[in-house]
Amino acid sequence: MARVRSGDTEATRELFDEFGELLLKVVRRHLNPALRGQVDSADFVQEAWLAFLQNPTMQPNFQTPQQFGAFLATIARNKVVDVVRRGLMSSGYNVNREVRLVGKPAASDLTPAHHNTPSKSAMRRELKDILVDDLGPAYRKIGLRILEGMAPASIAQEYGVSERTVERVRKKIMDQLQLL
């Protein structure tokens, strides 16, 4: 340890070789499975070494290699716990809200199509305007009812026209759709 504190790189490499596997096991044991796909365990090991090596003279004196290993393991565990807290508890990083694409339905299947968004509503209004634009004022009301999905018999009864008239307006709207 005295050699490491004096800046001996060979002594530091020996510590890496001796305690690297221990740190990796500690990190993997404490890393939540939901985060394993998001982060690399080796990054935590490197952060633990960095925390130790930034100021090795301020570290406590270790009587045994087990004490030093326990110290490094605590640093590594704390690094993992910080990321787990950030990754699972804060709303901005919450990995439990993520939808995995492998083996799951497509996002469009998860979002109901009947939910109106402002852009969908605007597109629907524009399309209605385009479809009934060429109709005269009397037929425009009938065309809007057709686009709302109302039954032809009900439309005919509401406006006092024949079902055949409603059917002609529907055909004009369908012709407009073909042009689009």
Strand content: under 5%
Major β-sheet, in short? none
Taking the alpha carbons of the first and last residues, their distance comes to 78 Å
Integer-rounded radius of gyration: 34 Å
Summarize model confidence as the mean pLDDT: 77
Walk me through the structure.
It contains 10 helices and no strands. The chain folds into 2 domains: 2-97, Rna Polymerase Sigma Factor, Chain: A; 118-179, Arc Repressor Mutant, subunit A. It is rod-shaped, with a radius of gyration of 34 Å. With 180 residues, it is mainly alpha-helical. It has helices at residues 2-5, 9-30, 33-36, 41-53, 65-89, 107-110, 118-133, 137-147, 152-159, 163-179. Helix 2 crosses helix 5 (65-89) and helix 4 crosses helix 5. The longest helix has 25 residues, at 65-89.
Short description:
The chain is an all-alpha fold. 69% of the residues lie in helices and 0% in strands.
List the helices and strands and how they pair.
Layout lengths: L1 H4 L3 H22 L2 H4 L4 H13 L11 H25 L17 H4 L7 H16 L3 H11 L4 H8 L3 H17 L1
Helix pairs in contact: 2-4, 2-5, 4-5, 7-8, 8-10, 9-10
Descriptive terms for the model:
10 helices, rod-shaped, single chain, mainly alpha, Rna Polymerase Sigma Factor, Chain: A, Arc Repressor Mutant, subunit A
